[in-house]
Amino acid sequence: MEKMDHDIAIIGAGVIGCACAYRLQQAGLKVLLLDKEAPGQGASYGNAGHIATEQIMPLANPAILTQIPSMLLDPVGPLRIDWRYLPRLLPWMLRLISNMRAGAQARSQHGLMQLNHTSLDAWKALLGDIDAADLMHHQGSLLVFEQEKTGQALHQFAKTLAQNGVVVTPLSQVEVHRKVPGLAKTVLGALEFPETSHVIDPLKLVESLVDAAVALGTECRQLDVHGGCLTEDGVELHTSRGTVTVPRVLIAAGAHSRSLVFQLTDTDIPLDTERGYHLMLPNESHRIPVAVTSAERRFIMTPMADGLRLAGTVEFAGLERPANMERAHRLAELGDSLFEHPLDLAGSTPWMGFRPSLPDSLPIIDAVGPKQQVMLALGHHHLGLTQAAVTAQSIRDLALNQPPSLDLSPYRLSRFRTA
């Protein structure tokens, strides 16, 4: 057993774990960062790059129920359930349905609004601190539509968003094509979200966070943490290279967090995974100036330093089944349909990763245990990139026992504990 000379070990070197590592190290704590892969190689590598401050509505919507047959039957649809995984997913789905009640939806929306309304400022502050502001472009984003009935629904939706603090501007067909030349004439209009942003290199963003944390004293080790338990001195972690003990641990392992959370907190959280896909087009980095989402086709296109990233599909099939890359390549067809001229698909590369999803659409941001030695920052589903910087601020406040800038009660672990 190795007793580490660190104040806290962070398990998970994705964007959330690395943002937390920097903020904690900056605050004067000695941080050990652990992951079985190199930093940023999980879901943080392949995300859509969209800082989605406008997405304040929880996943638990009754409209999903009508889509279940198509989810089971269409293997390349935008939202899919692998029928072989359905028995394991069923408890999660029942919790999702429970969260469709008006009161539960309101609580989830409040929690999302609180995080998203502060996320962009948190990112600007964090990137300023690590001298990496150039990795994020603050030019807004568009949600485009191709059918009149969709446009009517989106205009009503825009009013709801505006009432809840989201800055949104409806655009006519002429205005959309002026902002994004080359879109297909079938695009009839859009909602513009000027207070959103996009990351031009998600992997470099994580690596920049790690470099900044290491420069302050953080130690990184590439190993697998497969178990642990509480001790009188703190936390004992069982790893692929033996057992280590630390005074405190932060679990930020995304979709792989459930088992360790149970071992250290005796709480079986209803964490499942939304498998997300992307297709990277290396020759199309200048096709569009801002992120563009299609309302009907349900995918997003984000311009990045090394190409155009097409992303956004959701698949419930667990952590073990092989990727269905046909879903990624299907994005090329969807992308082509939104432009006057075909996309250049030469050298395109597909990817699949795991988003950690809880049925109330809220993450867990908490500190628990007899001495609050188990900290948690996980379950951000498809908003991990968006909420990483504000989550790191909250974890720092908890670690230092300072009054948090946000009301963290919506994100407590105790909401999943049974009597």
From TrEMBL:
GO terms for cellular component: cytoplasm. One of its GO terms (molecular function) is oxidoreductase activity. Pfam families: DAO. The keyword Oxidoreductase applies. The keyword Iron does not apply. It comes from the Bacteria. Residues 7-397 form the FAD dependent oxidoreductase domain. Keywords: Oxidoreductase. InterPro entries: FAD-dep_OxRdtase, FAD/NAD-bd_sf. This is FAD-dependent oxidoreductase.
